[in-house]
Records
---
Amino acid sequence: MIPSKTALLTIDLQNDFLHPDGAYGRAGQGADDILALPDRILPLKQALTQAGGTYISAQFTLVPGRDGEPLIAPHLKKLRPFLTRGDFAPGGFGHSLVDTLQPADFTVEKVAYSAFYQTRLEYILRSMDIDTLIVGGIVTNGGVASTVRDAHLRNIHTIMLSDGCAAFNRTVHDATLISLGSVTDVMTCAQAADMIGATT
């Protein structure tokens, strides 16, 4: 791994998911494993960027419609009926990356699980000559898994952070790590940071 050709990509670590005043916090939706992620990932972010690597934040986005109501996929509206006007809207507090991990070198707005789907992520990776992607965030079996699989299809080497991603259910998280073992390397945040240190 060459740090200058490596990017840390976090998925959906936004105020609307993690902050008490965000959409999920107001609805009483959350999990301790998810809330712990920013502090766990921060040392890795610092190690990589100090070594010349790149930090990219992919942020779930609900595009406001003409009347201001968000464009929400039917399955998501059924799963999360509490989502409403202003939630995950571009430029808003809830849409923003959590303070702990600010700033990102690049921000990618995403409208579905994968950070590659209809976004500029692949353009950024190619332009920056990045060949290794370290992936963490939420949820393990959703946005993280979809992004890792899409990177694999593009022949981009990935490292999935076993303790740098989380789900609302620990069993689902663990099962996802096992199922993705055939398409990605899996290691802890500390192991990834140590690997970066060994290359500098």
---
Amino acid sequence: MVDAFVGNLDLASLTLWLFWIFFALLIFYIQRENMREGYPLEDDDGNPSANQGLFPVPDDKTFILPHGRGEISFPSGQKAERSDLALERTNVANGFPFEPTGNPMTDGVGPASWVPRRDDPERDAKGHPKIVPLSHATAFHINAGRNPVGLPVVSGDKQVVGTVTDVWIDEPEQLARYFEYELADGGGKRLVPVTMMRLWGGKVIVQSIYAHQFADIPKHASDTQVTLLEEEKICAYYGGGYLYAASSRQDPQI
């Protein structure tokens, strides 16, 4: 009697080995796909890192952007890192913090740091800007709480610095993202994220920065939309104020 082809083959062992081989290849693929941004690695001085890891940087993959915004290839198409930052070393060894050398809030370093995102507004599934002024979104209105338009904007040192002129909303999410206000000194309009202000006692209180710092808040170029890069800089400025607005905020609090 002739034995079958698989008569002496351990199918259970073969299945297990095939699974382990597939799993190893899957890990290799996922790790390389994860390296399309941020690689090759750099040290604190911006030089190529001595240890790039076990996996090689993947070859370029081209992505077609929606709504006619062209194509982009990664990893070669990733945005260049910010250079010439106003920071200096505090220790010759890697891993130690860098200290700002100028005004960190305007230089965009430390807690006020930002990344070079696309200078294009965030868009919904139909290609329309998601965040727009309420005055241009005719299908929306405020039906709960107080309309903040006309309320004074008060700084962290309790100075009135402007007046709210509009609310910018996220249309798909149906919520407020920014308050727009006109500076009292004629310096134009600015946006403040709703997460970095407090509506209280008939006032819009911006606790993170002081009156003399409002003029340096990054501007938005359009009256009807705000880009991802502009959002990044605006939020970074207010956020950095929690540490950098005054030297006393950098001292130990306990």
---
Amino acid sequence: MQIETVKAGDTLYAIGRTFGVDYRLLAWANQIEPPYRLAAGQALFIPDGGWNRGGGKGAAGAKGARPVAWMGGYAYPWIDPMVLEETADYLSGISVFSYGFTGEGDLVLPEAAGERRILAAAARRHVCPALVLAPLGADGKFNNRLVSALLQNLKAQRRLIGQLWNVAEALGYGEINLDFEYVLAEDQTAFIEFVVRLRAVMNVFGIRVTVALAPKVSADQRGLLYEGIDYRGLGKTADGVFLMTYEWGYTYGPPMAVAPLHMVRRVAEYAVSEIEPGKILLGIPNYGYDWPLPYERGVTKARSLGTQEAIRLAVDHGAEILYDKTAQSPYFYYQDGDTRHVVWFEDIRSVSAKFALLKELGLAGAGYWQLMRLFRAAWLLAENEFRIWKES
């Protein structure tokens, strides 16, 4: 396995010949469609020539001593069936986003048909399904008042735990994942106590309880996103945690990498100082952003796009893809009419850098937000770097 950066004038056929790999295999691995156009600066995953096309363990995936890792990610019920089926081959777990709840402790269910489709794919591929519980209001946004209503009401908690157990047992969920964001500082201890109560019930039936954590770098970090999240307390009481190490670059923020490695490292290093590394999944974004320039705070809005969409945009506009060595992230500029744009996104180099950090710190694995877009090269790289944990 290698990663090759395209130079001006390179062709897929010539690169394949250099590495002894059929150009059609290169195209498949990197999701490049005919007429196989490339962008200068584009990173290509170069698989072993013996890799089985169509996904599955080939020569590259079989060689070398590789650590066992958990690979997972979040999916909405409306995930494309073809994306779901292929991605599930490379997963340890898949998290269905999302169940909600009321202040009285009643579950709010996701779209049923899509949920069943995800659960069926997980069962076929021996992938552990996780029920995600999030405090989403009627507007679809995270609501910390809903969190407070639940955490201050023991009767509502017991009601919710009972309903969660009924659903998990009926549908075969192996994990409950709590994605409680913007927890108030005064609810910090109550949140930990809720995790203790939930785990006491779920673990009896072999169901794990995990928690998604905002990206903190210190225990006393200020801000609504951080103050209610106690890394040490939640790491001790939960079966595992998911670090949401992304969204430094975001829709309304200034242009920058979504998950700059130097910032991801700070969060991960703080996490291992408070939590057992074998409990931690490193969050990886499966998207980027396109900002119109100049950026104006409170006015400029970036649009989200996937890796393949970003690369096609660079190809279409003849843009050279650059790479920030500090952030370990690719970016490029392009002109659309009178408007100049900048795009920051994830590619196989930035994912490889995050995998290296994962191995360096001895983390349990990685989880993607989210799985709605296929990023085949990232999954082939994961199979090359790790022995992906699967349910027996």
